[in-house]
Design goal:
This protein is an alpha+beta fold and about 425 residues long. The protein has 2 domains: about 220 residues, no CATH class; about 160 residues, Reverse transcriptase/Diguanylate cyclase domain (Alpha-Beta Plaits, 2-Layer Sandwich). Helices cover about 65% and strands about 10% of the residues. The protein has 12 helices and 5 strands. The protein has a 5-stranded mixed beta sheet with strand order 2-3-1-4-5, with helices on both faces.
Length: about 425
């Protein structure tokens, strides 16, 4: 399939083509034609099936005219209509329910229409002058029903109309009851009606294709709008620097995981991680290098996660947070330790030579606070975050580059925050 932009260009080109006043051949480029046929085949087959039943019923109702027109002719008409033509047409009509291919669908309906029309000419042949004149209306009825009601695709409608005109011409040529003027009038009326119905058929088919194109363009516009909205949503919920989720996204996810843990009675663990000595690092090497450090930490943090349900976000500044649904305290500490060791081993990004030697007093480490809770109805979601934050401050106070954890049973007394992060 063509790309979205290429396909959009093709659709717009075709819309311009079918919206003009000039005659256009009723076809699309190959891929678009296949899609048109695929999406319209089922409803078209069902519509032809229903209209086919109506046509068969109308064809058989002519038995009433046959009965009152000539009693001796009636039984011949009865056999031909009900025992020969009707079963054949019913079989063709029933095959529409199987959603056949385009060639079979259009050809079989065209042949059924020709069979009905030519049968009518056969039955009225050499009966009376009234019957010969009356059968001209029957021919017109078949052409009108085929071209305007059933709306066969234009090539098939044209072929059906030509067969009916040839059959009517042969009928009039051999008829011995109508005057020459009546025959000329009859064939002229048939030709005029055929031309009008074919023009109407072309207009119907052209409008069908144009409406299909407009619908496709509308669907593509909606899809593009949804894609742009999704991109905007991702941008609004992600941190531009690290690529992690931002604080807004974290708040939404935390609320959802809290409700899930409360409903299922499972644990919810939180890890708050903070880059050690980040202020000195920024002061010593500049904010651009500090940004590179945060990118490195964000990448390592994603690698430290275990399963797809784990969630990581930049909480603010040099602070990060991890949500671990269905995770007990021991497993949460293991995740925090893995993160701490990965940062310690990987170190900070390399310095530009112009920035001088690396300050050995600034170590590439993080401190982590871990808190675990089994939420209950009376608990406040904020308490779990506050507990993890307090454990982080405890890790800082005890020397940094470590993990401190707690299982929240009751409010934890606040620890004095270190003066320097």
């Amino acid at each position: 399939m063509p790309s979205s932009s290429v396909q959009s260009d093709i659709i717009n080109q075709q819309i311009g083509r079918f919206s003009g006043l000039r005659f256009q051949w009723l076809s699309f480029p190959e891929d678009l034609e296949e899609r048109f046929e695929k999406e319209t085949a089922e409803p078209r087959s069902k519509r032809l099936w229903m209209e086919g039943l109506i046509a068969i019923a109308l064809f058989d109702l002519f038995l009433i005219a046959d009965f009152y027109g000539s009693r001796g002719h009636f039984w011949n008409a009865f056999v031909v209509r009900l025992l020969i033509v009707t079963p054949v047409c019913l079989l063709v009509n029933a095959s529409m329910l199987r959603r056949p291919e385009k060639f079979y669908r259009e050809t079989s309906i065209a042949l059924g229409a020709c069979l009905a029309g030519l049968t009518q000419l056969y039955l009225e042949s050499d009966r009376s002058r009234v019957a010969s004149a009356y059968v001209q209306m029957a021919v017109l009825a078949v052409i009108l029903f085929t071209n305007i009601v059933m709306r066969l695709r234009l090539p098939y409608a044209t072929a059906t109309s030509l067969v009916m005109l040839v059959g009517d011409g042969v009928f009039l040529w051999k008829d011995r009851l109508l005057a020459p003027g009546d025959k000329i009038f009859g064939i002229g009326l048939a030709i005029g009606a055929t031309a009008v119905t074919l023009v109407a058929n072309y207009s119907f088919c052209r409008e069908e294709r144009l409406n299909f194109l407009l619908q496709l363009r509308g669907e593509m516009l909606v899809a593009d709008l949804n894609r742009l909205n999704a991109q905007l949503l991702r941008h609004s919920e992600s941190d531009a620097l690290t690529g992690l989720a931002n604080r807004r996204s974290f708040d939404n996810q935390y609320a959802e995981l809290w409700r899930t843990a409360l409903k299922r009675g499972t644990a919810l663990s939180v890890i708050v991680a903070d880059v050690d000595y980040f202020k000195q690092l920024n002061d010593r090497y500049g904010h651009l290098y500090g940004d590179e450090v945060l990118k490195r930490i964000g990448s390592l943090l994603q690698q430290a996660l275990r399963v797809k349900d784990d969630f990581a976000a930049r909480y603010g500044g040099e602070e990060f947070v991890i949500l671990l649904p269905g995770t007990n305290a021991g497993a949460a500490v293991q995740v925090a330790e893995r993160l701490r060791k990965m940062v310690e081993l990987a170190g900070f990004p390399a310095l530009d030579p112009s920035q001088g030697p690396y300050d050995q007093s600034i170590r590439a480490t993080v401190s982590c606070g871990v808190a675990t809770m089994y939420p209950a109805d009376h608990d406040q979601p904020e308490r779990l975050i506050e507990c993890a934050d307090r454990e982080l401050y405890r890790a800082k106070a005890e020397g940094r580059n470590r993990v401190c954890s707690a299982v929240l049973q009751q409010p934890i007394p606040e620890l004095k925050q270190p003066t320097e992060a």
